[in-house]
Amino acid sequence: MQEEEKITTEAQQAVSAPEAQQPEAQQPEAQQTEAVESVADRVRIISPFRLVMKRFFRSRLCVAGLIMFVFLLLFSFLGPVFVGWQEEEVDRTGTEVRYSYRIMEAEDEAGNKYTVYTDSLIMSDINSNAAPFTYSKATSDKAARLHVLGTDQNGRDIFVRLMYGGRLSILLSFLVVLIYTIIGIILGGLAGYFGKWVDMVIMRIVDILNCIPSLPILLIIGAILESTEVSADLRIYIMMACLALLSWTGVARLVRGQILFLREQEYMVATEALGFSPSRKIFRHLIPNVMPQLIVSMTLGLGSIILYEATLSFIGLGVPPEAASWGQMVQSAVGNTAILNYYVECWLPAGIMIILAVLAFNFIGDGLRDALDPKMKR
Prior knowledge:
Layout: H1 2-42, H2 48-58, H3 60-78, E1 95-107, E2 113-124, E3 134-135, E4 146-147, H4 158-194, H5 196-210, H6 214-227, H7 232-247, H8 249-262, H9 266-274, H10 278-314, H11 326-331, H12 337-342, H13 348-371
Helix pairs in contact: 2-13, 3-4, 3-13, 4-5, 4-7, 4-8, 4-10, 5-8, 6-7, 8-10, 10-13
């Protein structure tokens, strides 16, 4: 009996042993599950847009370019609201103007050469070439107003014209870039999707336009417009439209190359099976995948268009003298040594604004190119 009781006790212990050991065997799995859940709670999913913005703002040059761009926008579009002068308003409060004329070159007894000048003091009705931070004279209907950068030779406030010049330059650059980007997207998308003779015709047109130098063509067009007596206000817009028609080739090549790669992807095979129209395939499924590269191209193109506009205004084919433009303000010093040497406030701030605008767009373009690159690890 004792042996039977002993055997029964050992059997019961053998049966209860796995049950006692079962929680110990399951304990590591439970701990592992809790660890996975705690890691999942600490992980934050970042959207592609936020990832791009994080990469963009990580670069100091990109942030500097964005700050300069915001400054130019506020200066050009919001600044004239807080200044008491208009773009073409002339300060007619009058001032005394001293003119110096060179008479002759002479030489003293010691052989030293010198120049003889004569001065004349004239009372002018226009407050021309006023010094920076001076005021106009108060009149019966208007109080004295400040000229932050003085006035030009025609009595117009330089600081206000600098603002309006930035407004014109930025609007024209955005308009030109938008026009040639749309043309490039349409023609590049058709060439890349259809291929064959469509691709051949469009790419041969691109090759022909790439062989044409833009600036000489614009000079010829400007001379033709001047001979046909086209108004100066309309001339700059016609010139910019011609520039847009000559600048779409780069965008077309970019879009064509990307579509040649994307049209072989699996989702395009699915759109083919679903029977989508070619226009829907191109503009709803292919072009959106090319937008990161297009944004970078547009941003970098803004700086070059501003330089083109400044160049055309500098050589006299841009905006009329009455309107304000950065290039036209720099052009005022051409052939006038007095303004070039003694009135640097008439042209130097406009040159600085052109440099800031081009640098801002180039910095932003470089930052977007790095931020939108999927191969970037940092």
